[in-house]
Amino acid sequence: MLAILAFIVIFHISSITLLFIATIDNAWWVGTNFTVDIWKTCLNSTDACKEIGSNTPYFQAIQTIQATMILATILCCFGLLCFALQLFRLKQGERFVLTGIIQMLSCLCVMIAAAIYTSLHEKFHPDLNDKSATYGYSFILAWIAFVFTFINSIMYLILRKRK
């Protein structure tokens, strides 16, 4: 049982790490001369970064992505704290339902952010017309974090506190 708990904690911490990297790092949309994330646009030729301002097309959608990624990270961190508290407070045989629900909400937030970015990423920066541009590793890490938080929430809902 100790090995299962250790695996779940490591899995949860890796989910938190993926969420932090995906939220902070500048690689959601990458072209030959630029990198874009949910916070700023950086041009490789001049090493200048410009924050995404309110004059950007679909600025409210970008703010939604920012908010849901931050909320997902906070919920995932809170879920780990909740798991630690429930580990010592729950009676034997009870499930970690609250922790599972918190992780499911974190999963939902990541899915919303990544889905909005998937559908509207080309409209966010119409001035960056690079046909060779692709999704960056931060965007991919966001989808991997979605899968990790979903699996983690299912594990919490199934897990019972045993002796």
Write a brief structural summary:
By secondary structure, the protein is an alpha+beta fold. It has helices at residues 2-24, 59-89, 97-124, 137-158, and strands at 29-30, 34-36, 40-43, 48-51, 134-135.
Description:
The chain has 163 residues and is α+β, with helices and mostly antiparallel strands. The protein has one domain (2-158): Butyryl-CoA Dehydrogenase, subunit A, domain 3. 64% of the residues lie in helices and 9% in strands. It has helices spanning 2-24, 59-89, 97-124, 137-158, and strands spanning 29-30, 34-36, 40-43, 48-51, 134-135. The chain has a five-stranded antiparallel sheet with strand order 4-3-2-1-5. Helix 3 packs antiparallel against helix 4.
Counting DSSP E segments of at least 2 residues, the number of strands comes to 5
Compute the number of helices: 4
Number of domains: 1
Strand content: 5-15%
Membrane topology: Multi-pass membrane protein
Organism: Leptobrachium leishanense (Leishan spiny toad)
GO cellular component, one term: perinuclear region of cytoplasm
Keywords: Cell membrane, Cytoplasm, Golgi apparatus, Membrane, Nucleus, Transmembrane, Transmembrane helix
Overview features:
163 residues; Butyryl-CoA Dehydrogenase, subunit A, domain 3; five-stranded antiparallel beta sheet; Epithelial membrane protein 2; membrane; cell membrane; cytoplasm
